[in-house]
Amino acid sequence: MTIEREIDPSEGWEEQVGLRLRCTTAEAQALHRALRAMFRGRMSPLLPSRRGAYPFTILVPATQADLERRWGEALRLAGLAAPARAPAKASDGATPLPAEQPAAPPGGVRTGQRPPAPGASAAPSRRPAAGTRSMWEQRFREAVRVVRESEARPVSHAAAVMAVQAGDDTDGEEKEALLASLPPASRLRAQIARYARREQHESIVALCAQRRPEVMALPASELLVTQLLDAHQAEARRLGDASVTAAGRELALAFLPELERLQQADAVRERLRQADGDPQSQASEAPTTITERLAALIQVTPAERLVPLEALRAQYPSAGVVRIALADAYAALGDVDRALALYRSERAADDVVDRVAALLLSAGRPREALDALGRRGELTPRLAGLRGVALVALGEPVQGRPLLERAWDAGERRAEIALAYARVLAAAQDLERAAEPYQLAFEAIPNALTAEDCRVMAEIAAGAGYGLLSGEEEAEYLDRYVERAGRRLRERPDAEEVLRKRVELRRAAERPELLRESLADWLEYLGETGDLSGLDAAFKLLRNLRREGAISREEQFDLLESLERLTPDVPGLADLLALEYQSIAADELNESLRQGRPMSAYVADLRRALHFLSRDVADELAQTIEAERQALAGRSLAVPVQVVEESAAVSLAGVSLTIVGGHVATRREVERELREHHGLTDFLEVAPSSEDHMDRTKVRERVVDRDLVAVITGYTGHDLTNIVRDLQRAGDVSGRIIWPKCRGKSGVVREILAAREGQ
């Protein structure tokens, strides 16, 4: 592959240099991702170059010397390290970059992590002080020192988790030292996760073959079983050995009962069905013994299992294993009372008491669970942990903590026990020790975590308790908190700080759609709370993001437009919006006249909105546009015939449309616009839960058999978003689903019309 490039120190904003590239689009995108990971500061998106010889330009937050010195590192990080012909000679003062460096050895820097840059000049931080790399580095080195110097004291779980999740740029010896500090079970799980991340499938297969009993003792989760299945299937394809696939299938089947209890078995069953054919055919081969017949039945769903299990029970009425298997099936189907009756018909063995207590706890009946456990003598670690869970659920964490600690120290990693233990540690402000049990609970039972749990995990992530995270990775922890809190986030004292911090963490625009969503959530909160000073600061940030290239003028308008519905209730907001709209239109006008083309079509919506926000500002803008056009014509320069570009006419006649979420005013205006100007006749809406109760059945009725479904996201409607995603994954929605990037009326209309036009 050949990549020609040059740098121009005079191009870009302050503290940026221009990097011009001649290569394929895929290569340019890979280099852009690599440079974003390497340099911190204001990075532009991948821009089209105005120089014909170099079709791509990136404005990089680095000095010319830094970029020249680290060019080989950028190529390795992008996966493009290879000899290339000498670059074209630079013109107009630009300096060509040196030839590529030799390829990195295996185990080099992994894409997405920030590699170290010894001696590199500092770039402006785009992260708040609490999340900067220097603090992470300090904590990481301190953790390493503790690991190496202390043999008698237990090592913190947070330090161990940092070793597992640290990027490949971390020193190998330090990472292995921290990894070795984990308890055996946690170390094994960490190794599997690490091999899966690096796609070292052969290592996972070898680990399972050598340490199968230990693997089977790990806490079950859909993620773990998926990693094991993926590794075995990939290795079987590489070796052409069906026995490797069979070994992975056997492991997955062994985890199925616990996954069923966690309600995570369906996805694994589907994977097995796709890989090996319908398991029901295997269950019908008439195994000879009860054990074989029960093992075959676990491969089908609980509902399909009931009839054959009832037949087995009638055939073998004294077989306890059959009654327990039947009770497990009823428990998985939510028939708690029938399952309890079957469990209690057995002798009070530990495994039966375990099942009874766990079922009662999952059914929200901790007092009964405590009674079932209270009649036991000496409790096993698991039963002690379940008793601790019941005590915590009953509001007695002081009595429950010793039991949970006993279970945890004995290696018990059941998800319910881990979550209760994490909560008592968090209540005691011992966040360092709470990191690992919280992460385990999130992997196994994510729906059981409350908004407060997610807030604590975000706090742990901000303090580097989960390793050296990028801004986007740290923001994902805040996403969980915002999503779980939903509309109640407004009632929390940290709401504004959390929403603003998400924006700051995503300021690099590694995923532009998530940056825009975070901005929209923050603006919505500030508008609904009437925080004009906060809105003024947010508008300033939007302007800065636009100058940095993180958002466009059209996206800036779309974000601001969603606030228009609040202007009657927030004095002064209309004036703020009018000034911002005027600034956006002025910039569009200047660019339009320089390039001799009409202003973008969205400006028509902007001017119409401005007319109702401030008639004076709207008139002033109209006069400015006319004056500038006349001045250009007076100098005998070309003036665009059209002031604003006209949108293509799109008909929605005969189209069935459903809008999910969004504010009632937005939905009403979108419907009116589409009916009056685009011929829409078949319109349905799904209001967010803040306006009306909506469950999966109601949502399904309004999105199936629709030509187009538009989902307007927001922190007030994540529940609807999740329902639609589930229906989409299940194949229940036959039409097209779009997720508009904006929440204002005109932006949503434009995206709906664009989706229809593109069909």
Would you kindly provide a written description of the structure presented here, covering whatever features stand out?
- It is a single chain.
- The chain is mainly α.
- The chain contains 36 helices and nine strands.
- It is globular, with a radius of gyration of 30 Å.
- Mean pLDDT is 79; it is low at 83-136, 146-164, 166-171 and 278-286.
The 3D shape can be described as globular
Distance between the termini: 36 Å
How many E strands? 9
Helix content estimate = 55-70%
Q: Would you tell me the structural class of the helices and strands? A: mainly alpha
Biggest sheet: strand arrangement? 3-4-2-1-5
Provide mean pLDDT, rounded: 79
Q: Proportion of β residues?
A: 5-15%
Helical segment tally? 36
Low-confidence sequence ranges: 83-136, 146-164, 166-171, 278-286
Round the Cα radius of gyration to an integer and report it: 30 Å
Please give the largest β-sheet.
5 strands, antiparallel
